[in-house]
Amino acid sequence: MLERHEWLVAGMDCQACGIKVKGTLTKTPGIESVEFFPLAQRLRVEFDRTLVTPEAIEGTVKGLGYETTRGGIDRKAAVDDPAPTAAGTKTPWYRTGKGLLVVLTTALLALAWGGSTLLPESSRRWPFIMACLAGLLPIAKRAWAALRSGEPFTIEALMTIAAIGALFIGAAQEAALVVCLFALGELLEGVAVEHARSGIQALGALVPKTALREEGIVVREVAASDLVSGDVVLARPGDRIPADGDILSGAGGIDESPVTGESIPVTRGPGDQVFAGAINVEAALRIRVTRAATDSTIARIIRLVEQAEESRAPTERFIDRFSRWYMPAIVGLSAFVAVAPPLFLGQNWSTWIYRGLSLLLIGCPCALVISVPAAVASALSAGARNGLLLKGGAVIEASAKIRTVALDKTGTLTKGRPDVTDVITLADMPERDCLALAAAVESTSSHPLAKAILRRAEGLALPILQESRAIPGKGVTATIGGQGYAVASPRHATQDGALDENGANQVRALEETGKTVAVLYAGRALALIALRDEPRADAGDAMRQLRTLGVTPVILTGDNARTAAAIATALGTEYRAELLPEQKLAAIRTLGEQGPVMMVGDGINDAPALKQASVGVAIGSGTDVALETADAALLRDRVGDIPALIRLSRATMRNIRQNVSIALGLKGLFLMTSIAGVTGLWVAIMADTGATVLVTLNALRLLRSGRTGVSV
Description:
Structural class: alpha+beta
Mean pLDDT: 82
Number of helices: 24
Strand order of the largest sheet: 14-26-25-24-15-22-23
Number of strands: 26
Oligomer: single chain
Largest sheet: 7 strands, mixed
Number of domains: 4
Helix content: 40-55%
């Protein structure tokens, strides 16, 4: 039987590290699949225990120079268990393996320089040789482990060849300096990547470790991880909410910034949803837990962002393919530079071997390989902190190219909480009876219009519902007392022959004021129910921002044309109205002929259109669908986050282009100077290390992105 284990891998800081580990493990008999998540420092391996053991896997990873901590186990027949979180006690840099290597090599190099002045000239190279070999030993061990596993072209292998080659040609001082600079570069890279990682890991620390759970008439302090759905907990003013849940009693301001990035506290009361990690600002709240700790919104955000690294951008996949032949090509070119001039032109062997070794170090692809994943990791972290969830580099790259944004109206551009404004009876029946009938028909629907009718009918005795059926894009039919009833759109009611000329005229009059009309009928129209859903406060400004970005916003709605026109005119957008779900799909395809399309909807009724679009974005306050269905999710009910998402994506792609230019530009420059003999070994390693650090630091600028992304 196949088993799946997970490990936390200390020191696996970049995509190149993960590729090396994955490449080594996949060659091991019995291993079926390997997944790695550098942002989480997490490795997941599926394997056949009869052929390979977890201990053997750990030994292979440790042989490559990484420390492992065993995580969860999951047998193939079982459901997926939540991924362990990489967050934990942070080890100071000087106590990590990379930090200790820097301290060791720096100390040995300083002693070598100091001691060499006291030795005769013939012996001054020996302290540097010993300093070089001591620092090179752990690097060479990693290179040898990778070589035995079929990975000959690694940065450690190139570094080992260059340092040993330098010792053979008498450049001991430079060899020791190169080893020291290489260790320093690896440390700086790890520290920089840790900044990108800490933004996500910090989310997990926001959830309190304990909770006050009601047990009968007693309130007892328990571990938050022990809470299960149905538990009732108490959140006092100033407390962090221990789990996702619904408020039973109490009302007040809730600071949801840890989850959604919304800095202004929002007022929540009985029936409202709250998130684990949010801060109860004002009054004591009794909350019924709806999700266990491992399935809270924050836990799912962490998992989604960590797993998003598997959804790699096309640019990143191209660079990975490029690096596979780039390194062997550089090794071949270095060998040619070292051998050809002495052999064919009678040049000095030491000079050209030295230049070949310099070229070998310059050719290390670290900066190039990390250029894309560093930017993507920073963007994912910045987005998550601001309520923007993008599921991987592929989504970021696609979002940066968007030229049209198609938006659902109800619940996206509008508040999604329409209210009944008019009930007009068309038959000899009291208004309250019509309203009770309509509420009974709609009682099984989750549509915002149905909820509005049910709110208006609160307090009324509803007739018993025998059966009901939803007709997507049209309405709901039901049987009550043996009689068939329907609550549907005027168009559908007209098609059924239920709406006469008088009723149609009244519908038009209501729709011209921007109201949505539902018709209650049983063979003939019984009542018209008018509702209005106001646009979100930031909708107009968001549409203006989209146009400024060169993106065309288009409203796609199943509502009637007059209501859609009223909303579109107010927001200054194009619109297409009275669309059934399949017609929305066709509209997305048509818009896609003009360029990449982003579809934004509530993630419930718009699921097909979200999947059809180049990028599907669900908007909603942490709902299951908003987090799981689409390519991206906006956790805040804020239309302004749509242009913010596009700005962040474009800033990320701009950052990636800068990173690739830095990596290739510096390597190209120093490649020429090394062949010409202008620069030497220590400058070569500085060029490689410097490019890697510059690329990483440039990517970290994305972490400073505010909600608008203007600062990047």
